[in-house]
Amino acid sequence: MNPTIDLLRHHTSVRKFTDAPISNDQFNTIIESAQMASTSSFLQTGSIVRVSDPQLREKFATLAGGQTWIIEAAEFLVWCVDFHRHQQIAPEAKLGFSEQLLIGAIDVALMAENALVAAESMGLGGVFIGGIRNDPKQVAKLLELPKNVLPLFGMCLGQPNQEPSIRPRLPQPLVVHENSYQQKLDKQLLAEYDQQVVDYYSQRAGSNTKVASWSEQISAILSKESRPHIQAFLNEQGFALK
Q: What positions belong to coiled-coil segments (predicted)?
């Protein structure tokens, strides 16, 4: 074991922050770390919008479903797939392919994870905000995003004002397949994990009184529509057209 592995294995999402700011040196180091993530074909398809305007923060908190930590965090970043930059460099660029959407989404996710790990290594904390996709058209309007730029998610960063417990992950045998995909799910192993999740929620400090297994949560989430407006928005922004 080493400090890097220890940091990765003890990740938690932080949603309560102190008033302490993130210094310019810290911020620049976080962004530099993000930019050093792997990037497909060296396309570097990620852009970051740093949201510092308090009124804009409040609007994002509302759009994301009342996530007040967007207002309270020292930094709120919106991570975007950006092919607009490429089009300005190469007007003849052929865009709109689904593969480009995958490339961009992977690039940006790798960048953002690098940023969060860098922040955590400084004693900071953060949380991803997928809720901005509740109304991506409004997000694009607020940030004045041109065509060929896609907002994927937000991220809050700051000095933690809580110590969340570590949420248990799936057992490795349910995740790692050797040589071929193992189609038959190990129900006993899943049942043991479900109980572990139930125990986690029952012991978690705070006002969250959730009592549910992982399987129950998955059934609840996947039994309803998942932002059906996304396909149309992707097309409007010039993505996944072919």
A: none
pTM for this predicted structure: 0.95
**Digit-coded pLDDT (tens) for 198-223:** 999 988 866 556 789 999 999 999 99
pLDDT in tens, 2-44: 999 999 999 999 999 999 999 999 999 999 999 999 999 999 9
Cβ partners under 8 Å of residue 12, min gap 6: 125, 163, 164, 165, 166, 167
Query: Which domains, ranges and CATH numbers included, belong to the chain?
Result: 3-165+226-237 (3.40.109.10), 172-211 (no CATH)
Report the run of H or E that residue 78 belongs to, with start and end. Answer: strand 75-82
Angstrom distance (rounded) from CA 65 to CA 73: 16
